[in-house]
Amino acid sequence: MNKIIAPLTALIAGVCLIVTGLIVTTTWKQNRSLNQTVAVTGSAKRTIKADLAFLSGGVTATSVTRATAYAELKRQMALVLTGLESKGFMGDAVELSPSATSVIYDQTPEGVATNAIRGYSSSQTFAVRGTDVVKMKDLSLSLNDLVNQDIALSVNAPRFLFTKLGDLKITMQAEATEDATKRARKILEATGRTLGDLRDASMGVIQVTPKDSSTYEEGGSLDETSIDKDVTAVARLSFNIK
């Protein structure tokens, strides 16, 4: 009886070793597969046109009395408003700030202010808003001609914005993610492997730059200087490899 049991025990032990070996091998292959990943970066780019523009500036008038300084400011600002109206900007499109008047004191030869009053300075700013961005750009250039009419005018560079950027960001982030997934799949196809589950995903900052510009800012950029702009979105994905 013992002679029969001994070989049977050895056979069972051998089978157990083989099964255990298969389990270990399969588990090792699965773990090895899970530990292999591919990391890719995808991007999406679109060219947009600004749909809203702002222009601001100011007028300053000086005189020996407060009253005459203010009167001169009103004269100059009236000419500015006439110039804006001639370009099609009036009513709600133009916003005026309250005027302000300050005292101008005499100074010593060393540049130190004294208590002696030399005159008064009255100033007022204006802001123009419009959806015709090309017209706004032309306005920014033509307003400088008012200087020839004896107007102490300063004009800031116009700002050009795209009001639908929030919705566009969502769409472009999805496009960048799709591009990254396609890149990962192509890489693995070339090696005979397939794409596994997504392990990690992160979105880069949105870059809004002048069209055809190579400008890049690590924290993201939001161009307001140009009418035509490029918007770039980036997605970074990591996948398991099967």
3D structure, described in words:
It is a single chain. The chain has 4 helices and 11 strands, in the order αββαβββαββαββββ. The chain is α+β, with helices and mostly antiparallel strands and 242 residues long. The radius of gyration is 36 Å and the shape is elongated.
The CATH class of the largest domain is Alpha Beta
Any idea what the radius of gyration is? Answer: 36 Å
Query: Count of DSSP E strands?
Result: 11
Q: In percent terms, what proportion of residues is strand?
A: 35-45%
For the report, how would you describe the main beta sheet? 6 strands, antiparallel
CATH superfamily annotation of the largest domain: Protein of unknown function (DUF541), domain 2
Under the CATH scheme, the architecture of the largest domain is 2-Layer Sandwich
Topology summary:
Elements: H1 2-34, E1 37-49, E2 52-63, H2 66-86, E3 94-96, E4 100-107, E5 113-130, H3 133-142, E6 153-155, E7 159-161, H4 165-189, E8 195-203, E9 207-210, E10 221-222, E11 228-241
Parallel strand pairs: 9-10
Antiparallel strand pairs: 1-11, 2-5, 2-6, 2-7, 3-5, 4-5, 8-11, 9-11
